[in-house]
Each structure stands twice: as structure tokens, then as C-alpha cells.
Amino acid sequence: MISPVIVTEHLTKDHMSHFLRKRFRALDGLTLSVDRSETYGLIGLNGAGKTTTLKLLLGLLKPTSGSVSVLGSPGGAQQTLRKIGFLPESPHFYSYLTGAEFLDFSGKVFGLTKVECKERAADLLKMVSLTEAAKTAIGKYSKGMMQRLGIAQSLINDPEIIFWDEPTSGLDPIGRRDVRMILLKLKEQGKTIFLNSHLLPDVNEVCDRVGVLHRGRLVGTDKISSITGGGSYQDLEAYFLECISSSEVKV
Q1: Which numeric CATH code is attached to 84-158?
Q2: Fewer CB within 10 Å, N or C, the chain?
Q3: Which positions ≥6 away from 122 have C-beta within 8 Å?
Q4: pTM for the full model?
Q5: Residue ranges per domain, the chain?
Q6: What is the pLDDT along the chain (251 residues), one digit of tens a residue?
Q7: What is the 3-class SS of the chain, one letter each residue?
Q8: Do residues 176 and 122 make contact, with C-beta atoms less than 8 angstroms apart?
């Protein structure tokens, strides 16, 4: 029996509006689970609560109520963080380091040896098509190059679970295609992948299952194979819109 490696139960997060000085609910009673080796896509409109969910799973935010479990431990547990890779929505790195130096630094944070850091960095820079820019200062990187470097950094420790927030953000069509190929390769390796995205064609191609988040609530979840029997992302788009429309009617 496959056991889930990511579990949330009634996960809720309230934020304080600094402008109005009022509390608002960013996430409302989220309950979901992700099995080992599954690729799960959390989709929703801007402001739906996708990034808040990811930060709660990583322990970067404390829940107002509810619980989070990743690899059997609470979100943010030290023993868990060593086994995950994280790509934020808009990654920022030390601008004075080169791409290769930053990956070397990231590897050392995870306890890799000097040789391991060098080998992993070279392989990952090649994977994300940054080999020629390996010795260029990050401050000179374009947004797309920064995104590619962020992807490489998230894989430096060969993680069991990968958390990516809008992984194709800032990438051109070729870059998006490359990211999809990387995701498919990671799936073949049996990695568990949790990603946020609003690009439904990409989600349709790489995810096993999706959850639709709207106004902080999970309003739909199903397997991609059940949603898009013909393989068209337009079926996923129709499902997405129907979930949102139905939830608005209930409200």
C-alpha cells in the first residue's frame, strides 16, 4: 500500500492586512495528501493561497490551525528539510557569486563534499542549459537564467520531495519545454513533486493529480487521467473553471 508523504488536515492560515489592520483568511481548512512518487499540481487564480500552502508545508509559515506532515514529520522539521528541494516563485541569489559558486555553496549547506559539489553542480548546470554561464556573476543573469539556476539549486541535494512554486515563471517557450522535460525525468526517477502553477498546459503534461484552490479553499481534486481523457489541456481548463464556478454558487 502506498503511503502519503505529504499530508495536511484542516490547514488554515490567517494574515493581518497592514493597510486595513484587519485579519483575512489566506487558507481555509485545506485537507490533502500526496503519495510517494506522485506529481501533484496545485492550481488556482492569483491570490488563491497556493504560495501560502507551500510555505506552510515547508515550515516558512506557522499555521493558524490544522496540521502539516511531510515525510512523517511536522512541516519545517530539520530532518525533513535535508530531504527536500525548494524553488520559490521569484528566486533571488547572491549577485556577486557565479552560478557555479552558488551551487557549490548550496551543496556545502547540505553537507556534500567538495568533489560531490563540483560533480553535482556540473551535471545540474548542464541540465538547465547554464554551462556557458557557469562562471558569470549571477547579477548579470536574466530572469529566465535566474529561474534555471533556482531549479538547479533545488536539486543539488538529490531530494526525495521537490517543491516548486511557478517553475516556468519568466521562461520563454524553449525554457518552459526544458522544465517540462526535467520534470518528466524527475518523475522517472521516482521523485515526489509538489508544484504550484497557473499554466494549465504544463500541469496537464507533467502532473498525475491536481487540486483546485480558490479563495483559500480546495474546491476540486482529481487525477489528470480522469479529467483529460483525450489528453487535451482544454479539458483541464474546463474542469478548473467549473470547480471555481461551482464554489462561487455555493458561497
Answers
A1: 1.10.8
A2: N
A3: 131, 134
A4: 0.92
A5: 84-158
A6: 578 999 999 999 998 776 667 788 899 999 999 999 999 999 999 889 999 999 999 999 999 999 999 999 998 898 899 999 999 988 889 999 999 999 999 999 999 999 999 999 999 999 999 999 999 999 999 988 999 999 999 999 999 999 999 998 778 888 888 989 999 999 999 999 999 998 898 899 999 999 999 999 999 999 999 998 777 778 999 999 999 998 886 65
A7: CCCEEEEEEEEEEEEEECCCCEEEEEEEEEEEEEECCCEEEEECCCCCCHHHHHHHHHCCCCCCEEEEEECCEECCCHHHHCCEEEECCCCCCCCCCEHHHHHHHHHHHCCCCHHHHHHHHHHHHHHCCCHHHCCCEHHHCCHHHHHHHHHHHHCCCCCCEEEEECCCCCCCHHHHHHHHHHHHHHHHCCCEEEEEECCHHHHHHHCCEEEEEECCEEEEEEEHHHHCCCCCHHHHHHHHHHHHHHHHHHC
A8: no
Residues shown for the chain: 251
